[in-house]
Structures are given as C-alpha cells and as structure tokens.
Amino acid sequence: MGRLVVIEGLDGAGKRTLADGLTAALGENGASVATLAFPRYGRSVHADLVREALHRGHGDLADSVYGMAMLYALDRSGAADEIRALRAEHDVVLLDRYVASNAAYAAARLRQSAKGEVVQWVWDLEVGRFALPRPDAHLLLRVAPEIAAERAVRRAATEADRARDAFESDDALQQRCAAVYDELAASGWLAPWHVLDGVAGVDLPTLAKSLLA
User: Fold this and answer.
1) What range(s) does the Thymidylate kinase-like domain occupy (predicted)?
2) What is the CATH number of the domain that holds 172?
3) Terminal-residue alpha carbon distance, the chain
4) pTM, entire model
C-alpha cells in the first residue's frame, strides 16, 4: 500500500510547484508516484459547482460556509475509490489539498480556531461519514499571506484559467486561514505534519527520502 501524502497551504503558496518537484525527487529514488489535486475541476460536478460559486454563480451559495464545505467534501468522497486504487498501484500518492483544507478555510471563514466546532464537523463528515482514506503525512507549505497573495495575483495575470476567486482575493481570510493551518499542524490533526518553508525553498531530495523511510 502506497503512502498518502497531502500538500497543504494558502492559495499562492506554491503547492503545484512543490508537487512537481517532489514527484521528480521521489522518482529519482525509484518510487512510483501518482498525483491528484482538489477540487477536481472539470472532472467532478461538485468541484465545478464550487468554482462557479467562487466566481459568484449560483446566487449566495458561496456565502454559505457549510454549503461550500459540503461541496468540497462531496468532491473528495467521489474520488475515494480512485485514491485507494492509486495507493494500491504506486509507492506514493501526492494530493494537492485534502480534508485539512476544508477544515482550515471553514474555520477561518467562521473566525474559529482549529478547536472550533466546524473543524470537528469536517472530521465527522469526511473521515467519519464518508470514510475517506486517511493520509500518512501532511506537508504544510508555509509562506506569509502577503507573499502568497502576490503570487496568486501574478498567476492570475499570466494564466488565463487562474483568475482569483472570492477566497483568494480575501486577504483577511487568508491571514486567518494561515493561523488555523499552523494550529492544525501543531496538533497533528488527522496525520503527522511537516512544516516547510515556502520562501527559502525546500530540500526536495531530503524530503523525498524522509517520505520513503
């Protein structure tokens, strides 16, 4: 059974870049790697509803913290069998966002801490009721919210399909989300967490070896 490793962080933290680099580093160590990113835009009706809502479609849907969190969770629930299959076929499965993203953003939107009721609700829903595969490790790519925001703006300017959505453009939300992520990491929520410096850079060869140890 392959290891399930989740990359978490703010919008603009560099999760996709880390996933690409880590995939290459793991491959250099002889490991087979599969990747999957959430939300699964273009593959899941729930993910597509999320994207439309974040760009102000579907009335006031985006204003509902629990409604949006449910859509994110349903997207992952629909991918549960795929994740299990990938783990059976590969040494490592890298996920760009997973359950902790739902917990962090929902708590930040409600101005709750990682000990708040919505974080427990996410656990009960995704881990309990939906029985999603539990990760072996989280990689928190930590950057200052201001730096993440600058990166997201640059990305939106250069990639036609990456316009900033309602969450990405809310600087105060990103600040609160960063704090919740730190709390989740400190408590070892759901799986062990490894905090990485998203500004100074990540020693990919060393990280890859540690994940395979």
Assistant:
1) 7-187
2) 3.40.50.300
3) 14
4) 0.92
